[in-house]
Amino acid sequence: MTPTPPPGPATPPATAARRPSLVGPVWLTVVGAVLLVGAVVAGVATTVLLVGTASSGVLRLDGRAGDAVVAEIDAPGAGTVELEAGERYAVHLVVPADADEATLDGDVLLQTPSGEVVAADRSPGVDMESTVGQWSAETVGAFTAPETGTYTVAVPPASVADAHVLLAPDRDFAPFLRNIFGSVLGMFLAIGLGVVGVPVLAGGIVWWALRARSRRTA
What we know:
By secondary structure, the chain is an alpha+beta fold. It has two helices and nine strands, in the order αβββββββββα. The strands form two sheets. It has a five-stranded antiparallel β-sheet, with no helix packed on it. Strands 2-8-4-5 form a four-stranded antiparallel β-sheet, with no helix packed on it.
């Protein structure tokens, strides 16, 4: 009788295929989404800053005097206004938007509460020019109030009809320039984040889809 050979080594059980990880695609997608959110936030903040910087508060959307205006006087004409000592005010000439280049025939004069006469000079902190609706406003002068109280304002005739003058606090040049540079930098930041974020997010989504398909196959 032929002896039975001893049994061979047992065949090891087949190991399950390792499923591909989703960690890489998930992180890439999250980074792309964060970059796009940052681009949106930077864009909104830049828009708010730019609108606030460009808006002078002199004219409203309907062409009326804005919230920053402290006095409105016809050209020619006279009126009174309450001013604070040491504060600098700008003189804005408002004319119809379709009018030719307009000027005043002289300086705007202000009589202080004590009787001193002050003339608005030609050096405002920021030269502003804006057109809203049917009206256009341009800065034509500025002055510093020497004392607090009621001033009498005399406005000379203008070179065009239907003109009037608005008095509003003058704007400092340094903050204005800083806001302009900040708006420009914010715009470039928003564009840069968007340019980087879109392909990163798209690549993460595609990679995630391919990796998920590989996991299902495994």
